[in-house]
UniProtKB/TrEMBL annotation:
Provenance organism: Vigna angularis var. angularis
GO cellular component terms attached to this protein's record: membrane
Phylogenetic lineage: Eukaryota, Viridiplantae, Streptophyta, Embryophyta, Tracheophyta
Gene name of the encoded protein: Vigan.08G282000
Record's protein name: Uncharacterized protein
Annotated keywords: Ion channel, Ion transport, Transport
Gene Ontology biological-process entries: monoatomic ion transmembrane transport
Length: 65
């Protein structure tokens, strides 16, 4: 279940706007809402780590004899 929620979170990050880093005034930044710019920024900055964390790796099990 945790992997499913993490994948949904990744999909949401592709659509979440951000404040442009070029704006220097706190609280009055330009909001970037272009999906191409949002996706490009996310792919460059955080997608790799999020993708690795969301991989459905097999869980170790304990076998009792």
């Amino acid at each position: 279940m945790a992997d499913v929620f993490y994948m949904i979170q990744i999909l949401m990050k592709f659509r979440t706007a951000y404040v442009a880093p070029s704006c220097r005034v706190f609280g009055r930044g330009e909001l970037v809402i272009g999906t191409t710019k949002i996706a490009t920024r996310y792919l460059r900055n955080g997608f790799g780590l999020d993708f690795i964390a969301a991989l459905p790796l097999p869980q170790p099990i304990q076998i009792r004899k």
